[in-house]
Amino acid sequence: MSDHYERVKIELQQMKEVENEAAADVVQLSTASVSPVPADVSFTARRDQSKSSINGRSRSKSRSKADGHERQVNGKQLPDLTPQKSDYSQGQSRVINEPNLHIKGTARLLKGKTAANGHVESCQRQTDVKCEHHGKEAKKRRAVTVDTSKAKTSLEALKMSIRQLKWKEFPMGRRTACDIYWHGVSFHDNENIMSGQVNKFPGMIEMLRKINLSRAVRTMQELFPEEYNFYPRSWILPEEYQLFSSQIRLLKDNDSTLKHTFIVKPDSGSQGDGIYLIRDPADLRVISGSQIKQAVVQEYIQKPLLIDKLKFDIRLYVLVRSLEPLEIYIAKEGLSRFCTEPYQEPSQKNLSHVFMHLTNYSLNVHSGNFVHSDSCSTGSKRTFSSVLYRLASKGVDIKKVWSDIIALVIKTVIALVPELKVYYQADIPLGKPGPTCFQILGFDILLMKNLKPVLLEVNANPSMRIEHEQEVSPGVFEYVPSPVDEEVKVGVIRDTLRLMDPAQRKQHVTSSTGGGSPEEAIVVETGSDEKEGLADSLPSLCLKQVFPKYTKQFNYLRVVERIATIFLRFLGVKGTMRLGPTSFRTFIRNCKLSNSSFSMASVDILYIDITRRWAGMVPDSKEAGMCLQAFTAAFFYLAARRFKALPLREQVLLLLEVCEGALEGHSEKPRPHRSHTNPASSQSSAPITFSSPALTRRRHRPPQLSAKANTEN
Ligand code: ADP
User: Fold this and answer.
1) In ligand 1, which atom is closest to the CA atom of 269?
2) Ligand 1 pocket, 296 CB below 6 A?
3) Residue 593 CB partners (closer than 8 Å, separation 6+)
4) Positive or negative CA dihedral for 646, 652, 654, 658?
5) Whose CA is nearest to atom 22 of ligand 1?
6) Ligand 1 pocket, residue 266 CB under 6 Å
7) pLDDT surpasses 90 at 629
8) For the chain, how far is it from start to end, CA to CA, in angstroms?
């Protein structure tokens, strides 16, 4: 990691120099100097809009909703990062006078950028020269074929990437198979793909809906509360409405001076849609028409880190290259999206100020204070490295910030993997022909004032647009090239493709749910340009491998994945995602979990009880039977019954040992993954004494509220 930081520092320095040069050019053109945020910012221009309900946005909504895309055109005290007032005024005059901010056109015109884009242009030129070399080498090999017919809004960045790699694009699809299929929305955008690689995993959209992400993280919080405290306390609506209300009331009764704020997010919403802040459970808008709204209500982080008095968040791109073995890469560069109204801690008066509380680009772009900038280190959307550079210059330990972020990303992916494997096996059953998958995810992360990163959400379809919306005259919006987006996103797509190059993956363990282990992955990992000498001909990879690289540090967390391995074994390969009662009985029998005090009749009652409860919690599921979450709940229950008086984590680990040990004897089925580290070594022989079908509600119990939010510690 240290190399990376050194490089970031050098790159940032270089960037700053280039920027200074670019700024000098700009001065000649515009007479204004560069600064991040307008001075004496007049917050009157769009005040009405910002104060209106957070739901009050309307423009450009349908466009990306239609394709399921995210609508983005997107106790240590910190030093004061707020610039002097004069900086502000300079910034404002830049916004007004800077002619280059008004380049009109589509992304196609990106090639013909003016000198204002000098910085990016020079990056582009360097890339093109390097790509020349790469092209000569590529000629020796068969060009990799990419079906781009379903790429949707990522098309422009994808085309650029393919051009740089000298690969072959099939914009209308191809009769014969392609090596790579680039989908804009989901795995199912093209049906019947029998080979190659698809840039989406089955089930990723479903898993990353706000409720499912919360459930997946909560399961991990039950096992590893300390490790998963990067996710704010959340309640799932409507099922936990009463619980949420009573917990908050209790808290207020105990201490009326406490001022908690909560953010309510619709389950399938994106880009700030339908989000609002509340301070009292009575303000929850639970019903919409005749329907009860599915939503997550979450503790609001009241003390975010501010730059220029503004709240901002970080969009990081993460590549899940394969599930088995698990391979995760993080893009070294990301985006920082800034609010456009100075931040104040929430009060009843400012709860509806969207431009103060929500960092969504798609909202803030409609604020009169939004600053479009051609520079990567100023304006309302900047590169993350420029923010890091700024923090580093104030003495912040950015190495620590980065490693905390890497840990957050790995832990989050580990929470998602178990269910993703179930989706994967349902769509691409073992032994049947089908593609392998990879996916770029968009992690939205907030830095707290104490620099602790907090996970806000993960996007299955992060916007890969390289243009942004701009109001060119009152009420008239156009897409104009966005150098910041291009810089970051083209690199991410190009380097994802490089990592997925079939020639590079020849010796790589195939991505399937059936084989391999993290340890194997370390041994056979070969898939990078560097090892084949291509690094000289292209810019160095912007994607950094973090898993299996950090397997040793994080493998112990993969406990639910081991439960999923058992679940999958009894699920079979029939394309289903639910366990029937017979399969559940077989699981109990094969794992030798029944005995005189836990009869097979009790097993059936357990199955029915828990399956029913989960059917109510996952209302849109069409399939009957026990889902993985229900199986995990049953597993936790069985573990608690058998290994009483131990902490849950140890109970579960011990039961896993019992099950995996028993299943090893059943040679007719594939072995469960023994490669996942299991810290538990002893095993109790205490019989299961299941006596009542009234199961503990442990899995569904949300975290207790304490007077102080632990995410703000
Ligand atoms: P969406 O998918 O609609 O963008 P997010 O979960 O990303 O939903 O929330 C939108 C914005 O709200 C975030 O970008 C962030 O600025 C703010 N936000 C979300 N959750 C929290 C939180 N728990 N505390 C503080 N701010 C939050």
Assistant:
1) 3
2) no
3) 587, 638, 642, 658, 659, 688
4) positive
5) 300
6) no
7) yes
8) 26
Q: What is the pLDDT of residue 136?
A: 56
What is the CA(713)–ligand 1 centre distance, in A? 19
Mean predicted confidence (pLDDT) in 547-573: 96
Return the percentage of the chain with pLDDT > 90, whole number: 56
Q: Which residues pair with 479 in a beta bridge?
A: 469
Residues 6+ apart with CB under 8 A from 146: 158, 162, 167, 168, 169, 170, 178, 179, 180, 181, 182, 497
Backbone angles phi, psi at 359, to 5 degrees: -95, 0
Of 61, 339, 360, best ligand 1 pocket probe by most atoms within 8 Å of the beta carbon: 360
287 falls in which pLDDT band (50, 70, 90)?
confident
* Tokens describing residue 12: 């940032």
The segment with the largest mean pLDDT, out of 93-102, 130-139, 391-400, is: 391-400
Pocket flag, ligand 1, residue 275 (CB < 6 Å): yes
Token pair belonging to 164: 């740089």
Between CA 88 and CA 41 the distance in angstroms is: 8
d(CA 311, ligand 1 centre) in Å: 11
- 3-class DSSP state of 452: coil
- State the distance from the centre of ligand 1 to the C-alpha of 212, rounded, in angstroms: 16
Distance CA 472, CA 104 (A): 8
- CB-based contact 635:559 (threshold 8 Å): no
Domains of the chain in start order, with CATH, are 145-184 (no CATH), 233-300 (3.30.1490), 555-663 (1.10.238.10)
Q: Which residue has the higher pLDDT, 687 or 650?
A: 650
pLDDT digits (tens, 9 = 90+) for 478-506: 888 899 999 999 999 999 999 999 987 66
Q: Is the CB of 346 under 6 A from ligand 1?
A: no
The residue ranking higher by pLDDT, 283 or 700, is 283
Tell me, in angstroms, the distance from the centre of ligand 1 to residue 314's CA.
11
Count Cβ atoms within 10 A of the Cβ of residue 702 and give its class: 0-12 exposed, 13-18 middle, 19 or more buried: middle
- Distances from the Cα of 340 to the Cαs of 369, 476, 485, in angstroms? 6, 20, 19
The pair of three-digit structure tokens given for residue 414, joined into one six-digit string = 């580990």
300 lines ligand 1 (CB under 6 A): yes
CB 346 within 8 A of CB 422: no
β 467-473/476-481 pair status: antiparallel
Which backbone phi and psi does 356 adopt, to 5 degrees? -100, -35
Gyration radius of the chain's alpha carbons:
26
Tokens of 546: 């973090």
- The amino acid present at 37, given as its one-letter code, is V
Distance CA 296, CA 234 (A): 6
The C-alpha angle 70, 73, 74, rounded to 5 degrees, equals 60
**Model pTM?**
0.76
Determine the 3-state secondary structure of 198 from DSSP.
Answer: strand
Question: What is the per-residue pLDDT for 63?
Answer: 34
Look-up of token digits 């178990």? 418
Contacts with 681 (C-beta within 8 Å, 6 or more apart), sequence order: none
Q: What is the pLDDT of residue 474?
A: 84
How many helices (DSSP H) and strands (DSSP E) are in the chain? 21, 21
> How does the average pLDDT of the chain come out, rounded?
76
Separation in Å, CA 216 to CA 78, 187, 266, 416, 633: 33, 21, 17, 6, 12
The secondary structure of 297-353 as a DSSP string is EEE----B-EETTEEEEEEEEEEEEETTTTEEEEES--EEEE-SS------TTTTT-
The answer to whether residues 606 and 637 touch, using CB atoms and an 8 Å cutoff, is yes
Q: What is the pLDDT of residues 390-423, one digit of tens each?
A: 999 999 999 999 999 999 999 999 999 999 999 9
Length of the chain as a residue count: 713
